[in-house]
Amino acid sequence: MNCWKSINVKRDYHPSRLMIFSFSMIIVTFILGYLGLSLYHRNDAYTDLSMLHTFLFLILLFPVHTFLHVVPLRFAGVHVDWSRLFFRQKRKAVQFLKFTKPVSRNYYIGAMLFPACIINISAAAGAFIFPSLMHYFILVFSFNSGLAVYDFIYIKQLLGAPRHCYIEQNRNGLDILVKQPV
């Protein structure tokens, strides 16, 4: 197979620009979601959870979002390695998902969309079913949308790729592979 294109989102968009996109998405989705649902649920009283519970939900959102990327790939028969690196100089931990064989473009796009769809639909349904906890469900919805910005950037790049290509992950990003002509 030949490499058609290499995608390195951090090199193309720069990490600070990606953070600005992500935080903008969080703020916009929270404002629009809260305004829209507060008009729908006008006379409902809100239940208050402790700040510890709120932070716990938001901290657990990232591993759940990452795990939901793995689910469609596992159903496609792809072995995914989950590893965590801790950089002592920068004092941060990073989770990596690495799959061992190339994946078709459509499976990979489905794997990128899966967490955004599942978590956002669940949060929207929870906001409608439990109006007293609506603000917490909208908070989960908006933070997951902020995490999904990275996924949407990858999807935007992959939609321009040939239909029958394969995606292979490398250390710096993704390689789009096409079959060699015979």
Describe, in plain words, how this protein is organized in 3D.
The chain has five helices and six strands. It has 182 residues and is an alpha+beta fold. A hairpin with a 4-residue loop joins strand 5 (166-169) and strand 6.
Brief rundown of the structure:
With 182 residues, the protein is an alpha+beta fold. The chain has one domain. It has 5 helices and 6 strands.
Key structural traits:
182 residues; alpha+beta; four-stranded antiparallel sheet; two-stranded antiparallel ribbon; 5 helices; 6 strands; 59% helix
Secondary structure layout:
Elements lengths: L1 E6 L1 H5 L1 H26 L10 H25 L4 E8 L4 E8 L3 E2 H25 L4 H26 L6 E4 L4 E5 L4
Helix pairs in contact: 2-5, 3-4, 3-5, 4-5
N-to-C span: 11 Å
Contiguous helical run count: 5
Are there runs of 5+ residues with pLDDT below 50, and where? none
Mean pLDDT: 85
Helix content: 55-70%
> Which descriptor suits the 3D outline?
elongated
Strand content: 15-25%
Strand arrangement in the largest pleated sheet: 1-6-5-4
Strand/helix succession: EHHHEEEHHEE
Major sheet summary line: 4 strands, antiparallel
Radius of gyration: 19 Å
> What is the count of distinct domains?
1
Total count of strands: 6
| Quaternary structure annotation | single chain
> Which structural class do the helices and strands define?
alpha+beta
Protein name: Putative zincin peptidase
Transmembrane segments: 20-40, 52-75, 107-130, 136-155
InterPro entries: DUF3267 (IPR021683)
Keywords: Membrane, Transmembrane, Transmembrane helix
